[in-house]
């Protein structure tokens, strides 16, 4: 147990990164619109995507190399594919996360004097400073506290909601169909971003690398996987918490839910206070903002780290990418680029996120296969390779993601 506690890090960072809009918006909306039945696709997505993320920790713990280096060992083409996905994420995901978090800050805490652009810049500056000065160890330590606060706030909120009981069903309410066009599109979005996109497996691998550097004694593969599993299971539990909250407070009311993440979160908090009482506003506001703030922090760190690692592997002759301050420079670059995206393309943010969603969905099965091929490579000893059961689950996940990707493309074309 002591060894497991010392190894805590990458798994909790994964949980912190994953519980963003996929949980706050999509899980809650799933319960609000379709009821408890949506727990099935949520748990199924978490189960079938598990191997892809687990392989990131497995490969790094055994080889002490990043998954990005594993892609390079397979051939530079695979690394270019991952670099392309990372590039799309660089110019879309961070901007979207920060603008949603800024909007939440304004709406939840009634800070109306400044606009979303100004609040986003303040968040960028504050988080960038934390990442540059504190580095990985501060990120890990601080997010342990954030995750603890978030879990407690959500647990209290969920208990309060369950004690209060479900809202009254509106007269004439009919459950929306899941297997029509609108329902399947919602399922695709829910499954695609639950718990997060497959390319985040490379992020987990780099956190594993940083964790190894901070430890006096290298953890065994068993301990490293146990630590990751703690974070992964926590991610699934929090998704169910958000589902229950949406189901018990909104399902059957006929409430028109906004498609905008910021408006939806504000709408959700106000509905909570009506259902539970105004005194519960603090818990709900803290849970919502902590969710998005921790996601911004971990995503900013991860995309910066993976960008440096990819550039170092693609251009080993360029010494600028090997500079000891390369991470700090990249954090600042990500801040400036994404703030410019917010200021210049705020009206088209949905289109930019749509592009990132398309690329992520279409390439997810390929990235999953790349992860499997990497962890089955010759630099991983036979005894540390995934067993038959995990490989079968991986193939099931690849088929699952492929079917969703094909249907998603078909829906876009017709």
What separation lies between the terminal Cα atoms?
54 Å
**What's the level 1 CATH class?**
Mainly Alpha
Rough outline: globular
Number of helices: 16
Mean pLDDT: 83
The portion of residues forming beta strands comes to: under 5%
* H-E string: HHHHHHHHHHHHHHHH
Number of strands: 0
Low-confidence stretches: 1-7
Number of domains: 1
CATH topology: Amino acid/polyamine transporter I
By CATH's scheme, which homologous superfamily applies? Amino acid/polyamine transporter I
Q: How is the main sheet built?
A: none
Any overview of this molecule?
The chain has 414 residues and is mainly alpha-helical. Helix content is 78%, strand content 0%. The protein has a single domain, classed as Amino acid/polyamine transporter I. The protein has 16 helices and no strands. Helix 8 (116-164) packs across helix 13. It is globular, with a radius of gyration of 21 Å. It comes from Flagellimonas hadalis. This is Divalent metal cation transporter.
């Amino acid at each position: 147990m002591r060894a497991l506690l010392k190894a805590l890090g990458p798994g909790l960072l994964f949980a912190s990164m994953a519980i963003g809009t996929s949980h706050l918006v999509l899980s809650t909306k799933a319960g609000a619109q379709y009821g408890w039945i949506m727990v099935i696709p949520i748990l199924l997505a978490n189960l079938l995507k598990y191997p892809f993320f687990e392989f990131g920790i497995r490969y790094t713990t055994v080889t002490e190399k990043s998954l990005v280096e594993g892609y390079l060992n397979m051939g530079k083409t695979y690394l270019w594919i991952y670099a392309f996905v990372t590039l799309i994420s660089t110019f879309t995901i961070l901007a979207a996360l920060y603008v949603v978090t800024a909007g939440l800050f304004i709406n939840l805490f009634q800070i109306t004097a400044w606009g979303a652009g100004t609040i986003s810049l303040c968040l960028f500056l504050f988080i960038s400073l934390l990442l540059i000065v504190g580095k990985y160890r501060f990120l890990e330590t601080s997010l342990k506290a954030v995750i603890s606060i978030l879990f407690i706030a959500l647990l209290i909120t969920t208990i309060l909601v369950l004690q209060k009981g479900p809202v009254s069903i509106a007269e004439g309410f009919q459950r929306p169909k899941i297997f029509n066009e609108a329902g399947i599109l919602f399922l695709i979005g829910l499954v695609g971003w639950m718990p997060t996109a497959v390319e985040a497996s490379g992020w987990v691998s780099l956190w594993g690398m940083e964790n190894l550097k901070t430890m006096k004694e290298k953890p065994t593969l068993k301990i490293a996987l146990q630590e990751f599993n703690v974070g992964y299971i926590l991610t699934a539990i929090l998704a169910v918490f958000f589902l229950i909250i949406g189901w018990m407070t909104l399902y059957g009311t006929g409430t028109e839910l906004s498609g905008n993440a910021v408006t939806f979160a504000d709408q959700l908090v106000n509905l909570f206070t009506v259902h539970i009482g105004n005194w519960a506003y603090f818990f709900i506001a803290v849970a919502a903002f902590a969710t998005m703030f921790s996601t911004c922090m971990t995503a900013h760190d991860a995309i910066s780290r993976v960008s440096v690692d990819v550039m170092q592997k693609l251009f080993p002759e360029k010494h600028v990418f090997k500079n000891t301050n390369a991470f700090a420079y990249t954090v600042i670059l990500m801040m400036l680029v994404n703030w410019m995206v917010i200021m210049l393309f705020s009206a088209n943010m949905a289109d930019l996120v749509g592009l990132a969603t398309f690329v992520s969905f279409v390439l997810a099965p390929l990235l999953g296969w790349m992860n499997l091929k990497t962890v089955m490579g010759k630099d991983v000893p036979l005894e540390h390779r995934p067993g038959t059961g995990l490989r079968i689950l991986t193939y099931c996940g690849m088929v699952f993601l492929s079917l969703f990707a094909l249907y998603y493309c078909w829906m876009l074309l017709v």
